């Protein structure tokens, strides 16, 4: 028996020595391991093997032929993990210094309420922290399912943005110096001072530098770049104390050395303004947040256009109006219809077509019902062509398309689609250009005569004769078309364009504009068939209906994009002029006044809803 025990002891010793050597190797290197469609980045110890994640299919605005051939491939979901280090990280031979933190005075700290359950029961499973967005310095992401998991040793964040989808980040508590949070600021937020090591990993796998340096850098002198900010969701006052206590006690139990505190509304607003605007006072100054009570959240039916158009608004729909919440499609569609029927004149309504918020999603979302033996453009068009079977959008001057991508709202205004030139117009334009070139060429070749002084003079008779013929050619081939196309282009009020209104300027929207042009071309060809050989077909391309990104006011937070697109359209019709310059910020100076956005706009939408409630029985 003793021999067996000694043998077991020696085996265990050998295994322990082996693991010790592996751990020692791991602590001195950053590692990147691809495993089961996850990119695991570790700093300090070996990454544990993870269970395979569900396959992720990336949806694209423009699924061209190349994409079709690879439609069964899955995308890699990166996961950034920074776990507890056994030894301090060394950079250039020197230990990393701790970054400076905000100063929190005793008067800024809120007393933590009593927890109604035992802490041991609370920490048995991950805690779900309701959060709509996360900002690493100046790099912003939306939170998938609006939930961050607080786990044994880390925050688990499943994120997405306009430039990167399906990003999983695991932020270890050991990489956090301080965690301050409040549900009284606008928006409710948690402010995290992370260690530089985590920021280095972030920069390595999510390149995000600009001309001023790294956009997320805890050592930066720019306050906007230094912290991680969780944009928390509002909680009802009846559960606010329980939520505060749960967050505090969970983190304290899991990471007792981290500086954790709940801070006052004024201090939280100060920190938010510093992290967002790098100054103490900003657009997010303290006001009473707009939060609906339980009585306000009763489901209701609202009617527009003499109740011929109705919306059933649920409790969840109405909760979107609370401060810090993203507006959903039902609220967006209701308010755009309200603007259409009650803010626009009869003439403007006749000139405008309003798409609903599902149109672009339907246009670009692959379906099991897709027809496979046609081009990608026709496939996209086939998904939505029935939506417009009774509408001639080319009789309209304005087409309004609200779009939601990666939990961000923006809106597109297509103006004067019917003024797009025809093939005949474009051929005439090309002929004019050729005539101009030929004219210039002929003029250059006209015999120059040297007078007695050596100066060159032109032969009067030849020059006059040739120039008269060239001008006549221009008149006969181009003058009529100049009236139909070129003069319209010179008149800004009738120039076709795709105008993008984006309150975050979250990356270029070239593909969106290209997809909409493609849709317009196919809709035109479908609705306006022409005889074979006709040159009257309108051409929708980048030259005939260009893209313009409007220099509109930008939202000061993570969640007000829906409010801004509603205000953009409302203001467009209120301030429209024939000479409007969409690329000048001065054009929009009074479009989104401070007192018309944020809390005031949310309250305005709620008041409009109440004014249009359909009485029961109607």
From TrEMBL:
List, alphabetically, the SUPFAM superfamilies matched: Cysteine proteinases
Q: Which Pfam families match?
A: Peptidase_C48
Q: Which domain of life is it from?
A: Eukaryota
According to the UniProt entry, which residue ranges have a biased composition of type Polar residues? 450-465, 476-485
Q: Which GO terms describe its cellular component?
A: cytoplasm; nucleus
Named from the GO MF annotations, one term is: SUMO-specific endopeptidase activity
- Ubiquitin-like protease family profile domain sequence ranges: 311-572
> Per the record, which residues fall in region Disordered?
437-491
Q: Which UniProt keywords apply?
A: Hydrolase, Phosphoprotein, Protease, Ubl conjugation pathway
The entry's family comment says:
Belongs to the peptidase C48 family.
Entry protein name: Ubiquitin-like protease family profile domain-containing protein
